[in-house]
Amino acid sequence: MYGSMMSMPSGLKKLFIALLLALSVLSPAAGFCEEARIDDVKVSWTPSLNASFEVKDAFTKDIDEAIKSGMPTSFNFIIELERVNSVWFDELVGRWEFKHTVKYDTLKEEYEVLLDETGDKGVRTKDMNEMKTLMATGTSVAVTPAHLVPGAEYELKIKAELRTTELPFILNYMLFFVKIWDFKTDWYSYSFRP
Length: 194
Fold this sequence. Notes:
Elements: H1 2-26, E1 37-44, E2 49-56, H2 61-68, E3 73-83, E4 91-105, E5 110-115, E6 123-125, H3 128-136, E7 137-143, E8 154-164, H4 169-174, E9 183-184, E10 188-192
């Protein structure tokens, strides 16, 4: 009897691991990485360099459910500006990172969205579509390079990553399948001359 009790946790461990692997293979989020993309990029130069963009196909049913369960989730945005050099390597002029974070309050049934680039206290909404728009859209994000050479060619690159918030160490082991919701878009490149 003692021997069968000792072997049971090992068997349960194997069953648990097999179940999690099956969930990750069958999940629709597994093919999600290839779909999310940066789109609708607009760049303006008055009074400074600003970029607006949207992440298309950024949400799946699994991500919606994870957010609705109260799990804080962030979109990390990376913007790089390079001066194009046809003879040598391109020169990195600047790199900016910011994030949008959403947390659902299950008691109040509302979303709180924090936008790093605006520096405000956050936007609260009960509308899921409004939350998705706030999370996936960068509006007039200030890109402030030290100096732009008139007539030189520049490339503005934008990338987005979805990251579920880091969980405590023990929960990372128990809920490692949550990582299947994470994604990175490809770089979107926009060329211009000031």
